[in-house]
């Protein structure tokens, strides 16, 4: 029975890995997307119990594997767009935005101006200045310096709230938004450009094939072990 539980645990982990890699491939062209990473870990031996009319311990499960996920914090490339509201971060770092769920961070600098002149994300969330307030611009051209200073009509309007995030503990909120522990910003800003995703297509394709192959092998192991247990259950007891 140990082999059955081990193989089943492996199938679950490989299925999660398939979903993770598929998500990376689906977002390979999403500006500022950070690739998800998966790490297989062993979980300790546990007791298997039976529920129902005759509850009790029926055995123990052998060591299996589980998948823990994280984010690849590596900086990505940059595509030139020549759109003044598009902003990219060279090196590590994030823009700070205000969402209905609170303060979040993004590398997706595909911004625009709403009807009130607020600088907003593609989802309509406010891009924040370093004083925690939304950034409001008048109609007309503006410039953004490498340090995030926004100027218009030869006057400083605001400075972008820019931050780094500690790699440990970073979480994805979806829509290219992230949470984490802030750290000093060490990058720079480029106007008229967008960050690419940091998904490595070659690596992701290889991971997808590997996960599929392992899943199929484990599924075969589960079938063989199930058949063995069924055969064992039909054997008579010699007394």
From TrEMBL:
- Keyword set for this entry? Bacterial flagellum, Cell projection, Cilium, Flagellum
Q: A GO CC term?
A: bacterial-type flagellum basal body
Q: Which residues form the Flagellar basal-body/hook protein C-terminal domain?
A: 191-235
Tell me any Pfam family this protein matches: Flg_bbr_C
List, in alphabetical order, the GO biological process terms annotated in this UniProt record.
bacterial-type flagellum-dependent swarming motility
| InterPro entries associated with the record | Flag_bb_rod_N, Flagellar_FlgE/F/G, Flg_bb/hook_C_dom, FlgE/F/G-like, LlgE_F_G-like_D1
Q: Where in the cell is it found?
A: Bacterial flagellum basal body
Record keyword Iron present:
no
Taking the first listed entry, what is the main subcellular location of this protein, grouped into a coarse class?
other
| Ranges where the Flagellar hook protein FlgE/F/G-like D1 domain occurs | 88-151
Residue ranges the record marks as coiled coil: none
Q: Domain named Flagellar basal body rod protein N-terminal: which ranges?
A: 4-33
Top-level lineage group: Bacteria
Family membership noted in the UniProt record: Belongs to the flagella basal body rod proteins family.
Give the protein's recorded name: Flagellar hook-basal body protein
Species for this entry? Sulfobacillus acidophilus (strain ATCC 700253 / DSM 10332 / NAL)
